Protein 1
Amino acid sequence: MSERGKFIVIEGGEGSGKSTCIEELKKENIGNSIFTREPGGTEVGEEIRAILMDKSNHITTLAELFLFCAVRAEHCAKVIRPALKNGVNVICDRFSPSTFAYQIIGAQREGYKTIFDELNYIATNNLKPDLIIYLDVDPAIGLERRKNAGEITRFDVKDIMFHQRVRSGFLKLAGQNGNWITVDASRDEDVVQKDVVCAVRNFLYEGRV
C-alpha cells in the first residue's frame, strides 16, 4: 500500500494572490501532486461554483453554507480522498477555512457555527488539511488588485467591512492551529510566490511547517 499523500490548502481573502501562487507551484517539480479548487473540483462542483460566484445571484448566507458544503462533499469523495489514498499530494485553492471566514465571520452569522461544524464534518468525513498556507493582505489592497484583475464575483462587490471581518476570521484560525503558515501577501508578487513554494517544498520533503 502506498504512503498517504499530503493535503495542502492555500487560503486568503480576495486579491491575496492565491491563484498566481498556485500557478507558480504548478511550474515547480514538487513531486506527485494534483491541483484543485473550491468551490469546484468536480463537474457538479464547477456548476455550483458558477451559481455562487455570479454577482447577479442573490443567495442567503445559509444557502451559501449548504452549497459550499455540498461542493466539498462531492470534492472530497471523488477527488481529494482517492488521490490521498493513492499516495498523491493534493494542493487545493480554498477549503473549509474559507467557509468559516466568509459565511460565518464575514457574514456575521456566528449562530451558524454549530451547523457549519456538523455539515463540514459530514461533507469531509472529518478530513483535515495537513498544511494550510494563509496569504494575509489588507482588504483595501486586495480589493484594489481584484478591481484591476477583470472578472468580478459576488464576493468582490461586498463592502470593505465584510472583507475586514473575513480577514479576522482567517487570522483567528491561524492563531488557533499549529499547521498554519501565514505569509505577508502585501509584498511583491514574486517574493510571495517564492515564500509559498519554499513552504510547500519544506513540508513535502522535510516535514517542516
Protein 2
Amino acid sequence: MRKKLSKRYKKLLDKTEVNKIETLEEAIKKIKKNCTTKFDESIDVSLNLNLKQKKEEVNLRTVVNLPNGNGKKIKLAVLCEESKIKEAKDSGAELVGSDKLINDITNGKINFDKLISTPNMMSKLGKLGKILGPKGLMPNPKLGTVTTDIKKTVKALKDGQIEIKNDKDGNVAASIGKKSFPDSKIIENFNAFIQTILKEKPNGIKGDFILSSFITSTMGISFKLKLNI
C-alpha cells in the first residue's frame, strides 16, 4: 500500500528539483529551507556502498567520531565490577551496576541506548546475547564498548561517537546533526563520516566504494550528492 503524502510534503516536492545532483553546501541550504516542522529535525546521510566481492559479500561495522556530535542525547549503561562502579558513575553514565544490572536486562528492563562492559563482566553477558544482540546493544571490543577505560569510552559516546553498519543491500545511514547546527558543523561531521567509510574499504573491492550518497532531514526531501573524493 502506497504511503499517502502530506500536504506539507507535497508542497516541498512541488518546489524542489528532486533528481538534481547537489553539492553538499547547496543541499544543506535547501534542506534547512525545507525544514518547516516545529521541531529541530535531524540531518541524515545515507550511502550505498560497493560491498560485493566475487566470492562473497562483505560487511562493514565500525564507529565514527563526529567532531560536533549529532545533537542526540544518549543514555548509557555501564556493566562493571563493584570496584569500578564509582568511576563509572563519575564518568557520566546514567545506569551503572553489576549483577543487579544483569538481572534488570534479563527481566526486560532495558532503559538505555548503549551498553558498555568491562572485559571481566563479558562472561556474565553471554547468556543475554539473544536479548541484547537483536537490539544492537551487545558490547563489542571492536566498537570500543568492551573496555577497561570507562571514563574515556563514556566521554567518546557522549561527545558524538556513533556506530554504523550496512544492511543487506549495502546501505549505510547516520544522523550527522540537527537543523539548528551551523552549516560548517554539519559539513565537518559529514566529512568525518565519509573519511571513516573510505578508510573501511575492504581489500579486494574494485572501483568506487561509495556508489551513491543522499542527504535529507527527518521530515524532508532527499537530495543526491556530488562527492569530491
Protein 3
Amino acid sequence: MSSKRFKKLPNKTSELPAETIDKLLLVVKKNCTTKFDESVDLSFQINNKQKKSEINIRTVVNLPGGTSKKIKVAVVCEDSKSSDAKSAGADIVGGDDFIEKIKGGEMNFEKLICTPSMMIKLSKLGKILGPKGLMPNPKLGTVTDDLIKAITDAKSGQAEIRNDKDGNIGVSIGKKSFADEKLIKNFNAILETLEKEKSNNTIKGDLIRSAFITSSMGVSYRLKLGKSI
C-alpha cells in the first residue's frame, strides 16, 4: 500500500518523453519529500543479448563529485607495505593473521583491497567473500601493488557498475543535497565509463536501451542520454 506522501507525487512519470539530466534534477529533487537526504539514482537497461554471448559489465568509476559515503576499507598486504596502506587511510591493515580473522567471519569493512602476492592466500576464501561482493578483483582495481591509489580512490568516491542477468544496471550519483553541478559530473563520468565498456566488449549497436532517474523514495523519469555541461 502506498503512503500518503507517495500518493502526492506525480503519476506515470516514466511514460513522459525523455529529458536531459539538467532539467530532470530539479524535478527529482522536488519529489524528495522524506525527512532524510535521499540518494539520486540511475537505472540503465543494456543490450546484453548479443549474437555470440551475453554482455557482462563489471567495473568501477571514480565519481568526481564524490558520494558522501564513508567507506571502511580493509587491506591485506605484506608487512613491508602495511605502513603505506595505513598512511593512505586504510581502516584495517593485516596479513596472514587478518586472513584468518576473515575466515572466522570477521568482516567489519565495506571494501577489501589486496596485493597480488597475498591474493593467492585470500582467493581460498571465495565462498565467504564472494557472496558479499567483497572479493578483490583486478578489474575493479582492488588487486594491486599500488595500495595508495586504490585506497585513495575507494575513499574519495567510487561506484561499482555491474549488470544483472536481465541487463539492468543501478547506480547512485549522489544525494539530494549535492549541487546539481556535482551530480552532473558524476553522471558524465558514468556515461564515459559505459562508453569504454562498449568498446572493450565490442558491442554492436547501442549499449544502453533505456535510462531512468529517480530518488530513493521518489518516482522515475525517462532520461535522455548524452553528456551535460
